[in-house]
Amino acid sequence: MSQRTKIKALLQSQQTEIDVTVKGWVRAFRSNRFIALNDGSTNNNIQIVVDFENTDPALLKRITVGAALSVQGKLIASLGKGQTVEVVANEIEILGDCDPETYPIQPKKHSLEFLRENAHLRFRTSTFGAIFRLRNSLAFAVHRFFQERGFVYLHTPIITASDAEGAGETFHVTNFDLNNIPKTDTGEIDFKQDFFGRPTNLTVSGQLEGELGAMALSDIYTFGPTFRAENSNTTRHLAEFWMIEPEVAFNDLVDNMDLAEDMLKYVIKYALDKNADDIEFLTQRLLEEEKTKPQNERSEMTLTEKLQFCLNNDFERLTYTEAIEILKESTPNKKKKFVYPVEGWGTDLQSEHERYLVEKHFKKPVILTDYPKEIKAFYMRQNDDGKTVRAMDILFPGIGEIVGGSQREERLDKLEQRMHEMGIPTQELWWYLDTRRFGSCPHAGFGLGFERLVLFVTGMGNIRDVIPFPRFPKNAEF
Ligand code: ATP
Ligand code: MN
After folding, report:
1. CA of 449 to the centre of ligand 1 (A)
2. Where is the Aminoacyl-transfer RNA synthetases class-II family profile domain (predicted)?
């Protein structure tokens, strides 16, 4: 029996008049003659030509959309439009039938909501095939970028006893019988009897442990799942998402920004080169979607143009303080168009403000630095002004914040003082503070939300559509 050849390879084949075996799922079957077969190796289908006069009618009936087939035949140059090669079938074997009456994925346009409810089957659509091939390439490119630069991939724990940001939006981890939780004499939960002998949770970030690695290995990165029990039912938040967190000894904030910008450009370029077909497909998909919008709401650039634009332009770098000035003077602020008006210095920026800066004012990715210390985490390096910290957020068109990072506070006294001010217990983080006791040095890092990157590269509008099985409030199906 001949080996299976993937459809992607067949479509690129220089050779014709050869015997091939191809396997996949039926996307369409027309005139009892032409099967469009797809195996997920590419968005493009291969056309199978059926000799229907010499094929058992019972078999023909079983060639329905969604059925899994194995086809043996000859690869020939195609005369038809839209393809250069096709397979003339010798033998068709039905590997798995698919009842057209009950199969949810019909050969028509389904809404994204419908497909989310059928996430177990949505991989079989062209849109989701493209999205998940792109997601794969981006993940690989992230590793390649860091590996080429000598970074060490560090696996930080998924179960931790610390809540890195002190935000408290964590999922608890326990093996207590929830109907019978051990209590102390005073009626509190007796965590001493729990699995780890203390309260634990799923990690919200690998940063603190990442810093420990960087204090010896110099350049590390993490790439793993993170969990946040935030009840934000938005198109940009998931309860389970993947984060990339490089941490680099001896880097300052400018090095940190350079690293983040280089990385983003590298992985976007990789995707453009590697998945040109998928990006072209998603570009067309978006153009169709844009047509349903009023003229003034349509995007000025296509998806491909947006990605190219991002590669070919320096990200705009400015301070939080400068951004506030711009926002205060902006037309939407003066015309009271923002839901959250920008009045004074010191408040956190809302996504509407971030998007105004990126999409309307600068019209390109923006890096904001030196935020007020009150709205940022305890570990960020304090500036001499006593008011701001060496933070940097990268804002992307259509997304808002895609990266959050900072130069870290490497001075023990300053760090402890800030922790006291913010009510963060220093004893619990003794191991973190040890890095500042024993050979501390300037260092910096950031967190890139992987799904937000995939959102940008695919041009999709909802983060739930760029992770195979999204976790969000009231949803953990599949
Ligand atoms: P936001 O203000 O958008 O909630 P954040 O300030 O909470 O973001 P960080 O704690 O700095 O985010 O996390 C680093 C990165 O992780 C963010 O820049 C973003 O790309 C991503 N991220 C944060 N929360 C989520 C989430 N719930 N789902 C998906 N990605 C997220
Ligand atoms: Mn958040």
Report:
1. 6
2. 132-468
| Residues 6+ away with beta carbon under 8 Å from 225 | 158, 240, 241, 242, 243
Pairing of strands 200-202, 172-173: antiparallel
Q: Residue 418: what are its φ and ψ, rounded to 5°?
A: -65, -40
Burial status of residue 2 (CB atoms within 10 A of its CB: 0-12, 13-18, 19 or more): exposed
Judge contact between 395 and 357, C-beta under 8 A.
Answer: yes
Interior CA angle at 339 toward 337 and 344, to 5°?
90
- Lookup: tokens for 361: 């004012």
Distance 228 CA to ligand 2 centre (A): 8
> What is the distance in A from the centroid of ligand 1 to the CA of 396?
13
In CATH, 124-169+204-315+364-465 is 3.10.100.10: no
Query: Which residues make beta-bridge pairs with 357?
Result: none
Q: Which of 135, 453, 465, 137 is nearest to 285 (CA)?
A: 465
The CATH code belonging to domain 7-103 is 2.40.50.140
Dihedral (CA of 50, 52, 55, 60) sign: positive
* 255 within ligand 1 shell (Cβ under 6 A): no
Phi, psi at 376, each rounded to 5°:
-125, 170
Separation of alpha carbons 476 and 453, rounded Å = 23
Could you tell me the distance, in angstroms and rounded to a whole number, from the CA of residue 58 to the centre of ligand 2? Answer: 57
Question: What values do phi and psi take at 111, rounded to 5?
Answer: -75, 155
CB atoms near residue 36 (< 10 Å) = 19
Q: For the segment 412-438, what is each residue's pLDDT rounded down to a tens digit? A: 999 999 999 999 999 999 999 999 999
Please state the rounded mean pLDDT for residues 265-286.
97
450 in Cβ contact with 138 (< 8 Å): yes
Residue type, 24: G
Tens of pLDDT, residue by residue over 70-127, are: 999 999 999 878 789 999 999 999 999 999 999 999 888 899 999 999 999 999 999 9
Question: Beta strands of 174-286 (E only): which ranges?
Answer: 200-202, 219-227, 240-249
Report DSSP letters for 68-101, one per residue: EEEEEEEEEE--STT-SEEEEEEEEEEEE---TT
pLDDT at 298: 82
Ligand 1, from 207, 380, 401: best to mutate by most atoms within 8 Å of Cβ? 401
Q: Is the dihedral of CA 337, 341, 343, 347 positive or negative?
A: negative
Place of tokens 């220089």: 14
Domain boundaries of the chain, sorted by first residue: 7-103, 124-169+204-315+364-465
DSSP lists the bridge partners of residue 472 as 475
